[in-house]
Amino acid sequence: MAARSFVVISLSLALAACAPGFGPNAGYRDTRVDISTRAVLEPARLAATWHEVAGFYDPAASGCALGLTKVEPLPGERLRLTHFVDDHPEVHAAIRGAVEYQYFFGGQREPVPGYGIHAPDWPTLERLITATLPG
Predict the structure, then answer these.
(1) Between β-strands 117-119 and 101-105, what pairing exists: parallel, antiparallel or unpaired?
(2) What are the tens digits of pLDDT across the range 61-115?
(3) Helices and strands in the chain: count of H runs, count of E runs
(4) pTM for the full model?
(5) Which of the four, 40, 49, 58, 119, has the lowest number of CB atoms within 10 Å?
(6) What whole-number distance in Å separates Cα of residue 106 and Cα of residue 109?
(7) What are the strands of the beta sheet with 117-119, ordered from one edge?
(8) 43 and 29 in contact (C-beta within 8 Å)?
(9) Distance separating alpha carbons of residues 82 and 63, to the nearest angstrom
């Protein structure tokens, strides 16, 4: 009897998970819109010589070795942003001129503006960024 009750309860919960949402939070997010985040950066807190002590080893990767990274903020609490990737044209327009390389990722409804670079997929994006790096 207990096993049968367990099966019925488990099946009910599993089916409930497939049902459309209900309650005050039902449908709170438009699933057609990508989730993204923006973060506040305090460059002075990053100023240091950073030692990489572990990483994911990929023998096929070139130029990826454990080592040091030195972060030095520019005067006025700024860091230089060199590469930017986003799929929203309005975000790119807002930072136009502040970034050397602006990659418009994925399918775009409108042609990519002259100041941007279209990267339709991840392999293309990796190739485009790698081509701009020294060495």
Answers:
(1) parallel
(2) 544 445 555 666 667 766 677 888 888 888 888 888 888 889 998 888 899 999 9
(3) 4, 5
(4) 0.49
(5) 40
(6) 10
(7) 83-86, 101-105, 117-119
(8) no
(9) 18
